[in-house]
Amino acid sequence: MASSVKLCTVDTITYYKEAISQLNTVIEHSDTPIVQDDEIPMIELLKISQIKSVKRFTVINSPLYYDEDVTNYATVNGINIDLSETKYLAITKRHGKFKFEAVTDIRVPKNTIGLNSRQRKRDRLKLYHTYNVKPSVKQHSIVDLFDQKYSFRAKIGGEDKMFEKIFGEALLSRFYPKNFVQRTNMKHVKGILLYGVPGTGKTLIARTMSEILSVLPKVINGPEILSKMLGNSKAKIRQLFDEAKSDPDGNLHLLIFEEIDAVCKRRSGDEANVHDSVENNITSQLLCKMDGWHQLNNLLIIATINRPNAIDPALLRPGRLEIHIKIEPPNDEARLSIFDIYTKSLLQNNLLHHDVNLDRIIHQTQGWTGGTY
Ligand SMILES: Nc1ncnc2c1ncn2[C@@H]1O[C@H](COP(=O)(O)OP(=O)(O)OP(=O)(O)O)[C@@H](O)[C@H]1O
Ligand SMILES: [Mg+2]
């Protein structure tokens, strides 16, 4: 029986397959069946292990039409794309995933609407936006699987790559059945650092992770605690870890440490400044606790920061805030997903004025984040 599962960071799927094959070994050699005591059914996890290779889909850029109730969609025949094998297309970026029939009749000229005009009239289809569509070949990704259950794409737009990394490298093992984790002596990832410019959704992502993990997080705001910790930082920091340590059921505890750089700046040798010495002290305390925290499998820290080099590098070592995820400002496609999220109800309730031109808005908001005003 495998005695430990290595959490590697090479490639999500490789990692995942490796973990699952070890899981299979344990199941095979186990006299007691592994109880499914967690949210994501084991069978689903196993299904993903069947993935032989991750197929990249051909993405077709194509105008999207929708009916007045926003329930039916149609698109044009693809441009320079062979759809002969494709029965259905799926819109990949819109409130969820919609399937519709592909029109593969070669008599339909390029750039024309796949449905004939009678059908369009009958269904009162209007042009909404140019959308990416892709042939809907069976796809199972770890992100899809989790999204089926938690619908986080309805809240966070354009962050699939980040989700893939965060689930694949950091959170997946938290969904394995507890008795499996115990028997394999698996060590979970203990700390994640989300970094990126203001407004890229770090706080939103951290909060959403706590919902997915079904834990009420303890939120620590760097700048706020600095003043509160003057004098008694040791006790305060100990408290943060103690609850997890003394939890009789070993339930997961989550600390969201916002703007951690406010208290854990690169340590300076200059103790003359009272703030510097408090920060240095807090950083040392935190490091000390984090090292003791190796034994604790039920505590996870998600820290956020704007610039990773503003933080004491000792905090970023393996076993501490070991997974570093850069949250990029949203590109065109991601901004479109974000606008989709925030215009969904308007659209569904017919409140979005017909002259709203999303393409233009997307163009005009280049470089913007949720923090731009
Ligand atoms: N990808 C996204 N999808 C949906 N909403 C987003 C996304 N990114 C940012 N937002 C929205 O933009 C606003 C700012 O996001 P948030 O506070 O999470 O950013 P942040 O990265 O934590 O910023 P800061 O570095 O200033 O703390 C929030 O209202 C958030 O919901
Ligand atoms: Mg924030």
TrEMBL record:
<dbReference type="GO" id="GO:0005524">
    <property type="term" value="F:ATP binding"/>
</dbReference>
<dbReference type="GO" id="GO:0006891">
    <property type="term" value="P:intra-Golgi vesicle-mediated transport"/>
</dbReference>
<dbReference type="InterPro" id="IPR027417">
    <property type="entry name" value="P-loop_NTPase"/>
</dbReference>
<comment type="function">
    <text>Required for vesicle-mediated transport. Catalyzes the fusion of transport vesicles within the Golgi cisternae. Is also required for transport from the endoplasmic reticulum to the Golgi stack. Seems to function as a fusion protein required for the delivery of cargo proteins to all compartments of the Golgi stack independent of vesicle origin.</text>
</comment>
<dbReference type="InterPro" id="IPR003593">
    <property type="entry name" value="AAA+_ATPase"/>
</dbReference>
<dbReference type="GO" id="GO:0046872">
    <property type="term" value="F:metal ion binding"/>
</dbReference>
<dbReference type="InterPro" id="IPR039812">
    <property type="entry name" value="Vesicle-fus_ATPase"/>
</dbReference>
<dbReference type="InterPro" id="IPR003959">
    <property type="entry name" value="ATPase_AAA_core"/>
</dbReference>
<keyword id="KW-0460">Magnesium</keyword>
<dbReference type="GO" id="GO:0016887">
    <property type="term" value="F:ATP hydrolysis activity"/>
</dbReference>
<protein>
    <recommendedName>
        <fullName>Vesicle-fusing ATPase</fullName>
        <ecNumber>3.6.4.6</ecNumber>
    </recommendedName>
</protein>
<keyword id="KW-0963">Cytoplasm</keyword>
<dbReference type="GO" id="GO:0005795">
    <property type="term" value="C:Golgi stack"/>
</dbReference>
<keyword id="KW-0547">Nucleotide-binding</keyword>
<keyword id="KW-0813">Transport</keyword>
<keyword id="KW-0378">Hydrolase</keyword>
<dbReference type="GO" id="GO:0035494">
    <property type="term" value="P:SNARE complex disassembly"/>
</dbReference>
<dbReference type="GO" id="GO:0043001">
    <property type="term" value="P:Golgi to plasma membrane protein transport"/>
</dbReference>
<keyword id="KW-0479">Metal-binding</keyword>
<keyword id="KW-0067">ATP-binding</keyword>
<dbReference type="Pfam" id="PF00004">
    <property type="entry name" value="AAA"/>
</dbReference>
<comment type="similarity">
    <text>Belongs to the AAA ATPase family.</text>
</comment>
<keyword id="KW-0931">ER-Golgi transport</keyword>
<keyword id="KW-0653">Protein transport</keyword>
<feature type="domain" description="AAA+ ATPase">
    <location>
        <begin position="188"/>
        <end position="331"/>
    </location>
</feature>
